[in-house]
Known about the structure:
The chain is mainly α. Helices cover 56% and strands 0% of the residues. Helix 2 (17-30) runs antiparallel to helix 3. The chain is globular. Mean pLDDT is 84; it is low at 1-13.
Amino acid sequence: MPHHPGAMETRKANMSTVQQETFDIIAKQAKIDIATIKPESTLKDLGIASLDAIEVLFDLEEHFNINLPNEDTDFDNGTVGQLVEAIERQIALKGAEG
């Protein structure tokens, strides 16, 4: 029986792996449905209080084995998309350092 990818699978295929993994971690930490997370969402929009947001950041840093600079972690106004970009920047820097 041929497998036809559903909308979710197609959406996942269009997302970067970093974004997908970031969304997974945020969804687990916040105990929310991953489908409710959009790149333009802020952690605050998703109902994640600052203490929980710090926990999310620790999990992300640990998962990707990076350190996020404080200027990349704006809980109130920073979007999930900006967080993903910050993570990708740190991964790229880490890769460049070798």
